[in-house]
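Priority: medium. Attachment 1 of 2:
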């Protein structure tokens, strides 16, 4: 186990002082468990339960991340019980779904029930959409892949004639542009 601070200082709790990791034969993390300093199972932090379990498909891709309480029951991490990842035949992630305790689509704490990716004819990322439980665009406050959405519901990746990403354009639920980020500097967080 690795001693860490898990965000309990502000709540006065002492749980989550040691984290243990398990790995599969390919070196990928499969479990993360939290324990007190005396070895008792506990929550990882106020927002995460005792166990985070990661599952991979035969193709090596991440397919599911689930949260489990110390008693073995399904748990919640930032309001979500399970994350599901779906890929197209070429291996690009096309859907990232947030499931509730009942296994149904459920809005995460950032407002999305699903993040759907789209690709252009050259199979480059063309855009992302934050969708609600109804499948419609939903405003989000998420930070996804280092890019802050700031209540946008959809982002379009804009490329120049040489196919370099030059901007990320953010839209609200109604389709009105709310922001345009210049992506010409490689240090700017952008979807590329």
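Attachment 2 of 2:
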């Amino acid at each position: 186990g690795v001693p860490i601070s898990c965000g309990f200082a502000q709540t006065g709790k002492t749980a989550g002082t040691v984290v243990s990791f398990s790995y599969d034969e390919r070196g990928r993390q499969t479990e993360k468990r939290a324990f007190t300093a005396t070895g008792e199972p506990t929550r990882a932090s106020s927002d995460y339960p005792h166990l985070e379990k990661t599952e991979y498909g035969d193709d090596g891709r991440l397919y599911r991340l689930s949260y489990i309480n110390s008693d073995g029951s399904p748990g919640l991490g930032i309001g979500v019980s399970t994350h599901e990842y779906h890929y197209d035949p070429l291996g690009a992630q096309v859907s990232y779904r947030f499931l509730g305790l009942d296994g149904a689509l459920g809005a995460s704490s950032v407002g999305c029930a699903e993040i759907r990716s789209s690709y252009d004819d050259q199979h480059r990322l063309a855009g992302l959409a934050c969708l609600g439980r109804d499948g419609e665009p939903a405003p989000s406050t998420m930070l996804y892949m280092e890019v802050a959405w700031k209540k946008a519901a959809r982002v379009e990746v804009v490329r120049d004639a040489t196919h370099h990403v030059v901007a990320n354009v953010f839209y609200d639920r109604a389709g009105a542009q709310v922001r345009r980020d210049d992506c010409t500097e490689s240090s700017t967080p952008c979807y590329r």
